[in-house]
């Protein structure tokens, strides 16, 4: 027998002309305890995870139940009715699931989102080493600037000059110079070296965006600290699943974003 829903019913068994009837009372299972699924303690802005609960009866069996989800600070974590969580701001907050007076909660620490790989890529192309400065590798950025600059300079400044004189003489004076030619013997090598170094710096900068906090270009605030505006032009474009997010300006007023 399988109990499907609460109520009273009969179970009838018949063999030949003999019939046996039994009254069966199916009582409703009540939730006596609940647990929350394993969740990480730390998230980054833009992360999305799914939280689930396990509700148990007095005898330890799973009881289907739909919990009510809530967040102590929706400016840090947003919780959908189905338990899907989205980190939207930095700070510490707690989510809670409630069923029939029972509750389970979990505390999260939300950190700044990762640096934009697009910003690192663009800065690396604007000027050599820019992407490495952006992700926090200034020594590599300086090396890239010097190496690319040296390669380009050698390709343009090192010249072979040939002077052709009209008169057959051992001394070529300015008066008998017929033609003067200049060649750049290291032009191809220098440009190829600069391109290779620039390519490696772009790869290094893009890989360096993993786990890095975003870059704040400028911060404005009033004297009393009532509001603060952070400009994030390089980290303003992000994506999560099928959504594209733009956050070029982050405004904080009275401790809320």
Automatic annotation (TrEMBL):
<dbReference type="InterPro" id="IPR008964">
    <property type="entry name" value="Invasin/intimin_cell_adhesion"/>
</dbReference>
<protein>
    <recommendedName>
        <fullName>BIG2 domain-containing protein</fullName>
    </recommendedName>
</protein>
